[in-house]
């Protein structure tokens, strides 16, 4: 799901490549290719036979590949609900395993191309070069440079019958206001002594097509064939975790979205969620007064100890996302809130009153929350909500909450409250405010980790 409107362009289909090859002076190697039994290469350009392979599958859609990547990355983040598929985090052995997970696509492409190129070379005896052309149309799990590296290595390892590889693609990065289009084409020499002589003509034709396609996308009316949109996050869910390959950043901060580029929020949360189980806290004296005011109220318990036991049982309902927060209640303040009336459902009423106090106080804490990185004066004790922004969807963000106690002349004392919660920034701030009330902390600060953010 895209978090913003976008331009769309025509995908790089085989029909499009036909046009580009024709502009480069090439043609179909076999005009009757659709009626032939033999599998053959697609084009002849000058004295080079070219076989085209278009990547139409999303790189993370294969179940076997998902399993291999999950087994590779999950041990790095055992407690985390969201794992970023970042190759840079792996050691040398991990790099090799990561590459092998993606290489099957190129292994089969190279093996198939080798046979097709050999067949066409026998029918074009004047041709003295064999070129594999890879066009990335739908694989966003790998960027252009990764594809260049993987297919180049695969071609060198698998065969001596491919003299060079051309890798091309089109990548759009957009935020609804600004769009960046990249049309890379890279030549990877495999046999150094047998260069692709016609490569410059092919690249010029590709660039000319790119200019025409951009004009059509921006100026002309979109057509049904314009189905290729912006590069988005790719992800899969396995073993109770989400594995994400974030979309590449656009390279610089937006001058239009001064608070950051828009992101999707597929959590379904558009208002402050419930962040606490609120309980009214009564002293023995207050409990006795309420018992006299409402002797019929069985929910108060027959004794103060029974009331405390019932309240204690509520602790079992607490979760990391909904801690129990006890709110002290006095009879006089409660009666002032009810207008002096003693409702029949007394416990429900004082619970509602406790909720109103909680909402009032927690809102003040939320309104006073500030960036930890921009706050010069901090209290001696405060709560910090840290959120790792991951890609384009807030549903993939991971947050942590700690209590910090400043120590004059020494390092601050940091105590973890909750870790690795799959909640976004605003949810984390609200939850931190609830924990602040639970632990008697007056100030909440927040921090955003932008390492994997979409910017």
CA-based gyration radius: 31 Å
Q: What's the helix-strand series?
A: HEEEHEHEHEEEEHEEEHHEHHEEEEHE
Mean pLDDT score? 90
Binned, the helix content reads 25-40%
- Largest sheet, described in full? 6 strands, mixed
The end-to-end distance, rounded to whole angstroms, is 17 Å
Number of domains: 2
Low-confidence stretches: none
Strand content: 15-25%
> Can you list the strand order of the major beta sheet?
1-2-3-5-6-9
Number of strands: 18
Helix run count: 10
Structural class of the helix and strand makeup? alpha/beta
Q: What would the principal axes of the Cα set say about the shape?
A: elongated
Q: Can you tell me about this structure?
A:
- This protein has helices at 14-23, 63-73, 92-123, 144-158, 199-218, 284-293, 304-313, 331-338, 346-367, 425-439, and strands at 27-28, 43-45, 48-55, 82-84, 129-136, 164-169, 171-174, 179-182, 185-189, 234-238, 241-245, 277-281, 324-328, 370-371, 381-388, 398-405, 413-421, 444-449.
- The chain is of the alpha/beta class.
- The protein folds into 2 domains: 14-64 and 88-234, no CATH class; 263-455, no CATH class.
- It has a 6-stranded mixed sheet, with helices on both faces.
- It starts with 13 loop residues before the first helix and ends in a 6-residue tail after the last strand.
- The model has no long low-confidence stretch (mean pLDDT 90).
């Amino acid at each position: 799901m895209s978090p913003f409107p976008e331009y769309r362009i025509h995908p790089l289909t085989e029909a499009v490549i036909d046009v580009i090859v024709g502009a480069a002076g090439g043609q179909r190697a076999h005009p009757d290719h659709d009626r032939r039994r033999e599998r053959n290469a697609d084009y002849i350009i000058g004295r080079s036979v070219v076989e085209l392979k278009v990547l139409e599958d999303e790189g993370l859609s294969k179940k076997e590949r998902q399993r291999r990547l999950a087994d590779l990355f999950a041990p790095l983040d055992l407690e985390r609900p969201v794992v970023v598929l970042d190759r840079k985090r792996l050691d040398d052995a991990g790099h090799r395993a990561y590459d092998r997970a993606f290489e099957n696509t190129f292994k089969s492409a190279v093996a198939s191309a080798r046979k097709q190129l050999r067949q066409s070379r026998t029918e074009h005896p004047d041709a003295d070069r064999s070129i594999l052309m890879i066009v990335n149309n739908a694989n966003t799990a790998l960027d252009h440079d990764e594809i260049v590296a993987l297919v180049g290595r695969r071609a060198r390892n698998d065969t001596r019958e491919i003299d060079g590889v051309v890798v091309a693609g089109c990548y759009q990065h957009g935020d609804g206001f600004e769009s960046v289009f990249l049309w890379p084409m890279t030549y990877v020499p495999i046999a150094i002594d047998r260069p692709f002589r016609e490569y410059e003509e092919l690249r010029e034709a590709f660039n000319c097509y790119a200019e025409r396609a951009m004009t059509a996308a921006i100026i002309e009316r979109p057509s049904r064939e314009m189905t290729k949109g912006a590069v988005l996050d790719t992800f899969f869910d396995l073993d109770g975790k989400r594995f994400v390959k974030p979309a590449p950043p656009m390279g610089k901060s937006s001058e239009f979205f001064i608070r950051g580029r828009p992101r999707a929020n597929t959590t379904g949360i558009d208002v402050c969620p419930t962040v606490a189980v609120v309980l009214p806290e009564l002293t023995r004296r207050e409990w006795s007064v309420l018992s006299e005011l409402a002797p019929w109220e069985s929910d108060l318990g027959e004794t103060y100890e029974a009331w405390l036991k019932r309240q204690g049982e509520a602790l079992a309902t607490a979760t990391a996302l909904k801690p129990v927060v006890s709110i002290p209640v006095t009879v006089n303040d409660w009666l002032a809130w009810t207008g002096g009336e003693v409702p029949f459902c007394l416990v429900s009423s004082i619970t509602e009153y406790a909720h109103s106090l909680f909402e009032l106080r927690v809102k003040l804490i939320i309104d006073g929350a500030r960036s930890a990185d921009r706050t010069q004066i901090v209290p001696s004790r405060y709560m910090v909500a840290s959120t790792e922004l991951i890609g384009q969807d807030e549903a993939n963000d991971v947050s942590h909450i700690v209590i910090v106690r400043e120590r004059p002349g020494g390092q601050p004392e940091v105590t973890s409250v909750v870790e690795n919660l799959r909640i976004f920034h605003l949810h984390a701030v609200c939850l931190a405010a609830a924990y602040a009330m639970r632990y008697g902390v007056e100030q909440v600060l927040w921090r955003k980790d932008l390492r994997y953010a979409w910017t």
